[in-house]
Specification:
Blueprint: E1 36-37, E2 50-51, H1 55-61, E3 68-71, E4 77-82, H2 89-92, E5 97-99, E6 102-105, E7 110-111, E8 119-124, E9 135-136, E10 145-151, E11 157-163, E12 175-180, E13 186-188, E14 204-208, E15 211-216, H3 257-267, E16 269-275, E17 280-294, E18 300-306, E19 321-327, E20 332-339, E21 356-361, E22 368-374, E23 388-394, E24 404-409, E25 412-420, E26 423-430, E27 435-441, E28 451-457, E29 467-468, E30 470-472, E31 478-480, E32 482-484, E33 491-497, E34 508-512, E35 519-524, E36 531-537, E37 546-547, E38 552-558, E39 565-570, E40 575-578, E41 593-600, E42 606-613, H4 619-622, E43 625-630, E44 634-636, H5 639-642, E45 669-672, E46 677-679, H6 690-707, E47 711-721, H7 723-734, E48 741-745, H8 769-775, E49 788-793, H9 803-814, E50 820-825, H10 835-854, H11 857-865, H12 911-915
Parallel strand pairs: 1-2, 32-37, 43-45, 43-47, 44-46, 47-48, 48-49, 49-50
Antiparallel strand pairs: 3-4, 4-8, 5-6, 6-7, 8-9, 10-11, 11-12, 12-13, 14-15, 15-16, 16-17, 17-18, 18-19, 19-20, 21-22, 22-23, 23-24, 25-26, 26-27, 27-28, 29-33, 30-31, 32-33, 33-34, 34-35, 36-38, 38-39, 39-40, 41-42, 42-45
Length: about 900
């Protein structure tokens, strides 16, 4: 039900905590302990403390977030999950343990940096599509932080965790609460105040409508192990067996025996069965349980756990793994597998772990398991047929009952969509060739041969037929929906597609005959002004086939300037009823200008980008603007695929806390996401021509914004995050003629520090030495002459982008006299979460753009020439007007203090008033 772009909609029955990055924290100004200051003077950069950007940026970032939505299993109620703005830095500064690739808040015994909801509102969804009045969940403690919210299968109860702030600024441990949806009354699940949730891995799950299985902290657990003052011996790693073990640069790995003990201490769980009437019962022995999955008939539980021996070279996902079947009453049934430590999975894409994997319940059966086993030893470089085999078996097989082969695949298994014994869709893919296949199988009929339904390239978005829509079963699982037309009696599937076209995405819904392949388009987005998508099937409460005349779906609708709203669309009239009315999140940019543009690289590859211009801007009247280009390279196997258009010109311009679109409020033009395809056709490796294609793509983008008259050729900045930062540094080294400055956030700059592959590069440093060296901007630090701002989180946990990358790159730049600045953000990871950090990043970025782009050296002379004229005699390239509350006399300017006074920053005045102000 949820997808990444629907940031308001959360899964119907799987509301886990949000990513702790930029999600739901309060703005935190009152709670923050860090020093925060705002100064209009751009040149107080040597001062210490956190800074705030100008108010026109700050007000957008501090706008209250919209709630997330969750629909009940019966689709008759909607939850509005309240969120706060950015969290304070003090939240991130809480102590955390970095163990086996996981960061743990030892005080809460959960993942660290969890975001949370602040309240729950329940709305009845009326027959006419309108919402009833909001009913707040009651009796929650004041200041409750809510996580991991799920519906019971019958939709009558909610379960979630609650934690509170304590006097020392930390959060308490998590307790499970339940709420009656009809009354809105909430209460703790456990009467005992000593039972807490262990949420390092899984947390709790509904076994049936009145019982939950909860991961709890063992009551017998004592204090955490203490780090010995004197180690028991040296830290030793050995490979005397000469095994080939290649790993990417994983972060936060275990370092010694103490770390092993600490990981086991925090991760060990005692499972507890708890009913809503207060009965509790321990379930199984204490272990490091990583997932719990009840069977559709609620008779069995599939338990996955990890155990020793642990590893110092790979994260916990590759530790030994045991999968067991238990009865729902706590009786052990059988062990499915106990996989050994997997340190030696090859780094080649599509390589996997040996043994049973992807073990799940069939969604269309009461208690049937299925899983996959590789036939190539997990090594993608081994040629073998078949490569993967899918097996199925009942949860408690008879004595002589062996697993059945469901299907064999020559590519790598990619999942199954279940329907019934007559239909399931099996997916396979292969990264190297970008090939993806969809198979039609009949799980209950051995005499029906599987056949290929779709065989295409994953890069060819124009040929994407869409994905089958799923309906919810009475058991709470999701299966492929079958639809009948009353006039012909045939059965159809619903294919929901993004509808990529050369004019942009035009989402659709097709009736698809899986036997003949014929299609009938029954819905399509309005392509002229709006971008609409199908989010979920709403008429799925009953068993059997759905009637097309009773079809009901949830759609979203947005435009360039209108925020996403949600609608119920009902057949046969196809009448749309709006069910949300969210306000515009940043009305000051409501009239921004957005255009999806196309242009061509010199080798003939068609490129696309989204051009944003400030409200009220007219290039013929106002002249060119300073421009910020923000991008992220991508890899392709063909020029045709690289040239295809992705995205829609009518999508709402969402602006995140660190979005480059914030500089529309500072009168910049912003070229967002210009495609930078790195193409390696046939046997050619894309990265062998990375620099050549990178520069050609950038040149084409710059030439296009200059040709359109919206960008001053001397005032174009480039920036990016992560691989986009890597791109930025390379462009300043290899194409300095294009840009006046750059902003590089959380990047990697020396590829010899990531010797076993990076991004989509499968070859090692020793296999492609020249490519690694040539691609590394660190090796070209002596060529970077344009100003570059480096920003990095001090606690970056992303493989490949160690904080050391920015530190060493800065020293290389400084060693060659480059104009550079390095900002290390305490407590921040790969993405930035705290309000203080984000505001400071925006201040640094704005200062850099004002100083080295908007007011670069060629403009300073014009400004200095105006000093003698207090009325601001201005030429066509620098008309000065007041900003941020009034006119500042040009006579007061000097070379280093020239904040917001040219025509680029008429933020506080309407267009006509600003133009006539002087």
């Amino acid at each position: 039900m949820a997808s990444s772009r629907f940031h308001h909609v959360v899964p119907v029955n799987a509301l886990a905590s949000e990513d702790g990055g930029n999600g739901s924290g309060s703005n935190g100004a009152a709670n923050a302990t860090a020093s925060v200051a705002y100064d209009d003077d751009l040149e107080s950069a040597s001062d210490t403390g956190y800074r705030l950007p100008p108010s026109e940026i700050r007000d957008i970032v501090d706008a209250p977030p919209l709630p997330a939505l969750s629909f009940s299993p019966l689709r008759d109620k909607i939850l509005f999950l309240k969120r706060r703005s950015l969290p304070p830095l003090s939240d991130l500064a809480r102590p955390e343990e970095k163990l086996a690739g996981v960061r743990i808040d030892g005080k809460c015994n959960t993942r660290s940096r969890m975001s949370f909801y602040t309240g729950i509102g329940i709305h009845q969804l009326m027959e006419d599509g309108s919402l009833g009045p909001e009913k707040e969940i009651q009796y929650l403690p004041e200041g409750a932080k809510i996580n991991f919210l799920t519906w019971s299968n019958n939709g009558q109860h909610l379960a979630f965790t609650v934690r509170l702030d304590e006097d020392d600024g930390s959060s308490s441990k998590l307790r499970v609460w339940v709420a009656n949806v009809d009354t809105g009354k909430a209460r703790p699940l456990f009467e005992s105040p000593d039972i807490y949730v262990n949420a390092v891995f899984d947390n709790f799950v509904w076994v049936n409508d009145s019982t939950l299985l909860v991961c709890t902290i063992p009551l017998s657990r004592g204090d955490p192990p203490r780090k010995p003052l004197v180690p028991s011996g040296p830290k030793i790693q050995s490979n005397e067996q000469k095994n080939v073990i290649q790993s990417r640069t994983y972060q936060d790995l275990l370092k010694d025996e103490y770390d092993e003990d600490l990981f086991e201490y925090y991760a060990t769980t005692q499972l507890v069965l708890a009913s809503l009437d207060g009965e509790i019962k321990t379930f199984g022995p204490p272990a490091i349980y990583t997932s719990m999955d009840p069977s559709p008939d609620q008779a069995y539980i599939l338990l996955t756990s990890t155990h020793r021996p642990f590893s110092f070279v790979v994260p916990c996902g590759r530790f030994p793994k045991k999968v067991e079947v238990w009865k729902a009453n706590g009786e052990f049934v059988r062990e499915l597998c106990d996989l050994p430590l997997a340190e030696n999975i090859p780094i080649a894409f599509n390589s996997v772990r040996k043994g049973m994997r992807s073990i799940n319940w069939r969604a269309d059966k009461p208690s049937n398991l299925y899983w996959v086993e590789t036939q190539d030893g997990g090594d993608a470089k081994v040629e073998v047929s078949p490569r993967d085999i899918i097996y199925t078996q009942s949860a408690a097989p008879h004595e002589n009952e062996h697993p059945k082969i469901l299907h064999k695949l020559d590519l790598r298994y990619g999942g199954i969509s279940w329907c019934d014994d007559t239909l399931a869709l099996v997916y396979e893919s292969w990264y190297k060739t970008r090939k993806v296949r969809t198979w039609v199988i009949s799980p209950g009929s051995e005499n029906v041969n599987p056949r290929i339904l779709f065989d295409r390239s994953s890069e060819d978005v124009y040929s994407d037929p869409g994905s089958p829509m799923s309906r919810r079963t009475p058991a709470g699982t999701y299966v492929i929906a079958k639809v009948k037309k009353e006039d012909d009696g045939d059965t159809y599937l619903l294919l929901n597609g993004s509808g990529a076209t050369p004019e942009g995405n035009i989402p659709f819904l097709d009736l698809f005959d899986i036997n003949t392949g014929s299609k009938e388009r029954i819905w399509q987005s309005n392509k002229e002004k709006y971008f609409e998508t199908v989010v979920a099937l709403m008429s799925d409460q009953k068993e059997g086939e759905l009637s097309i005349n009773k079809l009901k779906i949830l759609t979203s609708k947005e435009s360039k300037t209108e925020n996403t709203q949600y609608y119920l669309l009902c057949w046969p009239e196809k009448k749309a009823c709006q069910i949300t009315n969210f306000p515009h999140p940043y009305p000051q940019l409501e009239s921004l200008q957005k255009e999806m543009i196309r242009y061509q690289r010199k080798d003939g590859v068609q490129l696309t980008a989204t051009l944003y211009l400030p409200p009220g801007y007219d290039p013929s009247r106002d002249g060119p603007l300073p421009c910020l280009i923000w991008s992220y390279p991508g890899e392709f196997k063909s020029k045709d695929a690289a040239s295809q258009v992705r995205g829609s010109p009518n999508e709402f311009a969402g602006i995140g806390p660190t979005s480059p679109l914030l500089w529309l409020a500072r009168r910049f033009a912003v070229l967002s996401g210009p495609t930078i395809p790195i193409i390696g056709e046939g046997d050619e490796e894309a990265n062998d021509r990375y620099i050549e294609q990178l520069v050609a793509s950038a040149e084409a983008a710059v030439e296009e914004v200059i040709r359109r008259g919206v960008a001053d050729p001397n005032k174009i900045a480039v920036g990016g995050h992560s691989y986009g930062a890597f791109m930025t540094a390379n462009l300043l080294a290899r194409a300095p003629h294009l840009f006046c400055c750059g902003i590089a956030r959380s990047g990697a700059y020396n590829r010899t520090l990531t010797p076993f592959g990076f991004q989509n590069e499968e070859r090692t440093l020793w296999e492609a030495t020249n490519t690694y060296v040539e691609m590394s901007p660190f090796m070209s630090a002596n060529k970077i002459k344009k100003p570059i701002l480096l920003i990095h989180g001090e606690e970056d946990n992303n493989p490949g982008t160690l904080t050391m990358q920015s530190d060493r790159f800065f020293n290389a730049l400084k060693g060659h006299g480059a104009l550079c600045r390095l900002v290390i953000l305490p407590y921040e990871s790969h993405g930035y979460g705290a309000r203080e950090s984000i505001m400071h990043v925006l201040w640094e970025t704005d200062r850099w753009l004002q100083k080295h782009c908007a007011y670069s050296s060629d403009v300073k002379a014009d400004l200095n020439a105006c000093k003698d004229n207090a009325q601001g005699t201005v030429d066509s390239q620098s008309k000065a007007v007041g900003a941020a509350g009034g006119v500042q006399e040009l006579a007061n300017l000097d070379d280093e203090k020239f904040h917001c006074i040219t025509r680029f920053h008429v933020d506080k005045l309407p267009g006509d008033e600003a133009r006539s102000h002087w």
